[in-house]
Write a structure and sequence with these properties.
- The protein has 22 helices and 40 strands.
- Among the domains are: about 70 residues, Classic Zinc Finger (Double Stranded RNA Binding Domain); about 160 residues, Double Stranded RNA Binding Domain.
- Strand 27 and strand 28 form a beta hairpin.
- It is elongated and about 150 Å long.
- Helix content is about 50%, strand content about 10%.
- The longest helix is centred in the first third of the chain and has 67 residues.
- The protein has about 675 residues and is of the alpha+beta class.
- The two termini are about 40 Å apart.
- The strands form 20 sheets. Strands 1-2 form a two-stranded antiparallel ribbon. It has a two-stranded antiparallel ribbon with strand order 3-4.
Length: about 675
């Protein structure tokens, strides 16, 4: 019997690429969204910090001025305190007189912008705005500040100190201004867009939003002419050109151009993953990653392709998918010129030139080109199957395997043949099918010239030439060329017969055996002899039958020289020389040379007659008896005398008739 090839070995490499692609794409999208979110957070922090510094500066100046004013007011009051028998001065007169005196004292004026200050120190601090002087330097990261208060505030980033706590939710903040901004979360959003009505908790967020309506991007990079809506976005972008990376990891020497990238990186060292999925328990470093992950559980796919209607979890997935329609492959290999639609595919391809496989499994020492491939491989050792079918209890180690499995329940067949109307649940099945139309077989055996559609099929075929049989049965030591053949063989030892006929209940160890058996019930005989038109269930039966026409008898008895058209007939004959009859009936102790003969004999005792005539209700214990009987209904007489042309239902009748011509008297 022809064994099916090992599904694992026959697996289309493109499927494996799709699985690793899927994991890389989800990861890439998570990083992309995380960057977008954190970039906006960082920009807000930068703005808040600058506002806070201004507030700190102004508060410091105001406090000093208030203290001075209070001091002077006390002095004025003391001077004008009502003496015994004297007339008191009015409060307003006192205050007006004081203010005139106060204004006269603001004698330190900035020559650059005209602002006036009460003390020379205030003027000196102010002048740093014009000179750009920043005398206060951070000993941790080297960042410089114009005010000592700004440096003190900055140092909290390194120490982790967050002294300002929200009394509503307990969240802590670096500065009072950050806490003040946060408190707006707990109250109504006061700033509303006049165009679309969207509300914001902060005025600068509203201003940023309004630019989406006006399209104003007034900040331009002079290096590449790219435009931005805010000065902070431009400043961050310019670091691409300057190569500036001001943020250094406190655990290693790696540096980053953005503080958000540094925070993301440091989580590798700390292992911090504060955001946990309440469905499966998986944890994430950022809330945006958790949000994307939750779509796996909800089934939400908000991004739709306007070309084919396919939906996606993320905008980046949709963007990549659109290249299928545009045929765009913008990423090209500098070594061989091969182009790719995705950058990560190019990076993986480039490793085929360098031979770099830097990710190693510590269990079996197998190496991989990507971390994602290693992670998938490690599930073989851990037995982890994180993906559960929503229709049954089946679990899978790969998300792509789950997706394929669920199509069994839904009946979805998204892949349609471009040559005919046939549809398939798997892309690999579609590719295999389309090769029927194209006749494409790109993989050729250099030994015999036979061609194959898949490289894996050629690899298995080559074992015929090399004699390699890598799969060994631990029960009996037999070797097999494919894992599927070994799995089929193991059922002999286990007695497992998982494939059952729904017509008669008979079970089989292989699905191919069940398929052949079902033809008995359907009456299908797909293999036809081109010599006499006789039909057969199996190709092997047709091959054996053709020897009737060719008179070929390739199997020769080594004892008496008699030849046979079938090997099993030779084996049965050889037992007549040895006298071996190893199959015994426990009902009557009669012995037989073959298991098939014993099985047929046992039906005499059991009364079993599994073969029923399709024309009447008569039943038979042997299929040959059924065939002979059905010829009475059909009138078929396949056995013809070559002497006189007379035909017969069964061969034994022809044999008896032939004795008339040989002048032998029939018994």
């Amino acid at each position: 019997m022809k064994h099916t090839e090992d599904p694992e070995e026959q697996r289309d490499p493109m499927e494996e690429s799709e699985e690793s692609d899927e994991l890389r794409e989800v990861k890439e999208e998570s990083e992309e969204l995380r960057e977008v979110k954190e970039e906006s957070e960082e920009l807000r922090e930068v703005k808040e910090e600058s506002e806070e510094l201004r507030e700190v500066k102004e508060e410091g100046e105001e406090l000093r001025e208030v203290e001075e004013e209070s001091e002077e007011l006390r002095e004025v009051k003391e001077e004008h305190h009502v003496q015994p028998g004297g007339k008191p001065l009015s409060c307003s007169k006192t205050k007006n007189k004081f203010l005139k005196k106060r204004r006269a004292k603001k004698s330190f004026i900035c020559t650059q912008c005209g602002n006036s200050f009460t003390t020379k120190q205030h003027l000196d601090v102010h002048m740093r705005i014009h000179t750009g002087e920043k005398p206060f330097s951070c000993d941790q990261c080297g960042k410089r500040f114009s005010h000592s208060t700004s440096l003190n505030l900055h140092m909290r980033i390194h120490t982790g100190e967050k002294p300002f706590s929200c009394d509503q939710c307990g969240k802590t903040f670096l500065s009072a201004s950050n806490l003040k901004t946060h408190l707006i979360v707990h109250m109504k959003k006061p700033h509303s867009c006049s165009v679309c009505g969207k509300c914001f908790s902060r005025l600068q967020n509203l201003h940023g939003h309004e630019k989406t309506h006006t399209g104003v991007r007034e900040y331009m990079c002079f290096e590449c002419e790219k435009t931005f809506t805010t000065a902070d976005n431009l400043k961050q972008h310019q670091r691409i050109h300057t190569g500036e990376k001001p943020y250094k990891c406190s655990h290693c020497d790696k540096r980053f151009s953005r503080s958000s990238h540094l925070r993301s990186h440091e989580m590798i060292h700390t292992g911090e993953k504060p955001h946990t999925c309440d469905q499966c328990g998986k944890s994430f470093s950022f809330k945006s990653n958790l949000k994307i992950h939750m779509r796996i559980h909800t089934g939400e796919k908000p991004f739709t392709c306007d070309q084919c209607g396919k939906t996606f979890l993320s905008s980046s997935d949709l963007k990549k998918h659109l290249r299928v329609h545009t045929k765009e492959k913008p990423h090209s290999c500098s070594v061989c010129g091969k182009s790719f639609s995705q950058r990560q595919h190019l990076h993986i391809h480039e490793k085929t030139h360098t031979g770099v496989r830097e990710y190693m499994c510590f269990e079996c020492e197998k190496t991989f080109t990507t971390a994602a491939n290693l992670k998938l491989h490690q599930r073989i050792h851990t037995g982890e199957k994180p993906y559960k079918c929503s229709h049954c209890d089946e679990r899978f180690s790969h998300s792509s395997s789950l997706k394929r499995h669920e199509r069994i329940h839904t009946g979805e067949k998204p892949y349609k043949c471009s040559h005919c109307d046939e549809r398939f649940s798997q892309s690999s099945s579609l590719r295999s099918h389309e090769m029927i139309h194209t006749g494409e077989k790109p993989h050729t055996c250099d030994q015999c010239g036979k061609s194959f559609s898949f490289k894996s099929s050629l690899k298995i075929h080559m074992r015929i030439h090399t004699g390699e049989k890598p799969h060994v049965c631990h029960q009996c030591g037999n070797n097999f060329t494919t894992k599927q053949s070994l799995d089929d063989h193991m059922r002999i030892h286990t007695g497992e017969k998982p494939f059952t006929c729904d017509q008669c209940g008979k079970s089989f160890s292989q699905s191919s055996h069940l398929n052949v058996h079902m033809m008995i019930h359907t009456g299908e005989k797909p293999f036809t002899c081109d010599q006499c038109g006789k039909t057969f269930l199996r190709s092997s039966e047709l091959k054996t039958h053709l020897r009737v026409h060719t008179k070929e008898k390739p199997y020769l008895c080594s004892v008496c020289g008699k030849s046979f058209s079938q090997r099993q007939n030779l084996h049965a004959h050889e037992k007549t020389h040895t006298g071996v009859r190893e199959y015994m009936c426990f009902g009557c102790e009669k012995t037989f040379t073959t298991a098939g003969d014993l099985k047929q004999h046992q039906r005499i005792h059991t009364g079993e007659k599994p073969y029923k005539c399709s024309h009447c209700d008569k039943r038979f214990s042997q299929s040959s008896s059924l065939r002979s009987h059905e010829r009475i209904h059909t009138g078929e007489k396949p056995h013809t005398c070559d002497q006189c042309g007379k035909s017969f239902y069964i061969k034994s009748h022809l044999k008896r008739h032939m004795k008339i011509h040989t002048v032998e008297k029939p018994l």
